[in-house]
Design a protein that fits this description.
The complex is a heterodimer of chains A (about 55) and B (about 290). Chain A has about 55 residues and is an all-alpha fold. Helices cover about 20% and strands about 0% of the residues of chain A. The relative contact order of chain A is 0.18. Classes of the chains: A mainly alpha (about 55), B alpha+beta (about 290). Chains A and B meet through α2 of A and α1, α3 and α5 of B.
Chain lengths: ~55, ~290
């Protein structure tokens, strides 16, 4: 293949882009709890009083 | 050994042996659904836990992760140590759990003060930290999501952080779904070349949880809007947004590699799109009209 035609097939240069996506760290690291009923992160009998970084569901 | 309970969550079996008769596993109903009947206990389990009623030892080893709130992880000479903390107790650490490097064996030390509250030894956050560590070792991914199985047996996963509309979605599907496997936490694993979603004991405000699983037909990133619309995403954007709703092991590079690769594979195998939606039953039809 000729150099010129190879050059023609090249994709046009696109400048790299940085896209930011929101992350909720307290949720991603299981660092929250929420007083509710049932089990799990919304679990009943929450005894983390005062230690909750944030509510989550 | 005085007592043995075996939990199975997303096909992962966890045996919990206790050596102290005082220990009463106070399994809440959502957890009790994941207890395995004695006759169905597998010959080998993924994680063997022993529970001891004793004051938690002071954490030792190298601190490798601090959640900033209710738990921390240390690297020890034998593996890992997790300490659970609460200002509700006099001792700074009310429960510790030690694990071997592969997370196949562990020991939980829990104080009598906590047991007196009638809680089970795996209470949050330890339960989900353990599952995250099992999944991150080449098994799958847990997503902050609501999982719905339609009447045709197809699994639809609605993903989003707190407040995105997972519980609202679950309620909109009530009466239209075959089953809702959780309104807050769903696990995705690949089995025989198929991505499947699995219910978990961890639920949201609708308190929906089930042990059922289904093949995934579609993944929808929730975005509340003024009208219903499916919005295509680039693969990289889909992976990034799924990662923001996962619980990856930030402190364990091989698991981060696996999680990113798994999400990339998920995006290549199952349509992952943004679902802009009105909190109205019409959104159910938008999803059901998608080709199988």
């Amino acid at each position: 293949m000729k150099e010129s035609s190879r050059r023609d097939q090249k994709k046009p240069y696109e400048q790299p882009k940085v896209t930011r996506f929101p992350l909720r760290p307290e949720e991603a690291v299981l660092g929250f709890c929420k007083s509710n009923t049932g089990s799990g992160p919304s679990g009943g009998g929450c005894f983390f009083m005062g230690a909750c970084a944030a509510a989550g569901s | 050994m005085k007592r043995r309970d075996v939990l199975e969550i997303a096909g992962l079996s966890i045996a919990i042996d206790s050596e102290d008769e005082i220990l009463q596993c106070g399994w809440d109903p959502p957890f009790a659904r994941f207890l395995v009947d004695f006759d169905d206990v597998p010959a080998t389990v993924d994680l063997q836990l022993t529970v001891r009623t004793e004051e938690s030892p002071s954490p030792s080893g190298e601190l490798i992760f601090d959640s900033g709130a209710v738990w921390r992880m240390f690297r020890t000479s034998n593996g890992y140590l997790i300490d659970c903390r609460s200002e509700a107790f006099e001792a700074p650490c009310y429960k510790t759990a030690e694990f071997d490097v592969d997370f196949t064996h562990g020991t939980i030390a829990i104080s009598h003060e906590v047991l007196a509250l009638g809680r089970n030894p795996l209470d949050y956050p330890l339960d989900e930290v353990i599952i995250s560590n099992l999944l991150g070792r080449n098994r799958g991914v847990e997503l902050h999501s609501c999982g719905v199985i339609d009447e045709k047996g197809r699994g639809h996963l609605f993903v989003g952080v707190s407040g995105a509309g997972k519980t609202t979605t679950a309620r909109l599907w009530e009466g239209r779904a075959s089953e809702i496997v959780s309104d807050d936490r769903v696990i995705v694993r690949e089995h025989d070349g198929v991505m499947r979603m699995f219910g978990t004991p961890w639920h949201g405000e609708a308190e929906l949880s089930s042990r059922t699983s289904a093949p995934l037909a579609g993944v929808y990133l929730l975005a509340q809007a003024g009208s219903n619309e499916l919005h295509e995403l680039s693969s990289s954007a889909a992976v990034a947004r799924l990662l923001a709703c996962a619980f990856p092991l930030f402190y364990h590079p091989p698991a981060m590699d696996f999680t990113l690769g798994f999400l990339e594979r998920l995006v290549s195998m199952v349509p992952v799109r943004e679902l802009r939606f009105l909190p109205h039953p019409s959104i159910v039809d938008v999803v059901l009209q998608e080709p199988a």
